[in-house]
Amino acid sequence: MTPTHWLTEPQNIAAILCAMNFAAFAAFGIDKARAEGGKRRTSEAALLQIAFFGGIIGAYAGRALFRHKTRKQPFSNQLHMIALLQACAAAFAVLYFW
Q1: Tens-digit pLDDT profile for residues 49-75
Q2: CB neighbours of 30 closer than 8 A, spacing ≥ 6?
Q3: Numbers of helices and strands, H then E, in the chain
Q4: 10: closest CA among 97, 86, 79?
Q5: Rounded Cα gap, residues 10 and 18, in angstroms
Q6: pLDDT at site 53
Q7: The overall pTM is greater than 0.70
Q8: CA 21, CA 15: separation in Å to the nearest integer?
Q9: Between the CA of residue 15 and those of 6, 10, 51, 69, 89, what are the distances in Å?
Q10: Which residues contact 36 (CB under 8 A, 6 or more apart)?
Q11: Of 6, 28, 54, 95, which one is least surrounded by beta carbons within 10 A?
Q12: Is 42 helix (H, G, I), strand (E, B) or coil?
C-alpha cells in the first residue's frame, strides 16, 4: 500500500469533502459576523481557496444562509467559475472511471 492510497478510498474522499464544505460554510458565517462587527475579515482569496479545494457546496450554502458576498460581482463570477470547473472535473471523473 502506498502512502497516498488512503486518499483514494471513497469513504475518505467523502470525509474530506464534508470537512471542506463545513469549513467553507463556517468561513462564510465567521466572515459575515466579523463584517457586521467591524472586525478583521477573511480575505476573498481565502474564501475562494476553500471553495476551490472541495468546499463549493458549503460556500454556496453559507453564502445563501448568511446572505454574504451575494452582491460582489467579481467574487460571484469567480465562485461560479470554480463550481463550473468542479462540475466538469466530476463529469470527467465519472466518465473516465465508469
Answers
A1: 999 999 999 999 999 999 888 888 899
A2: 42
A3: 4, 0
A4: 97
A5: 12
A6: 95
A7: yes
A8: 10
A9: 12, 9, 16, 27, 19
A10: none
A11: 95
A12: coil
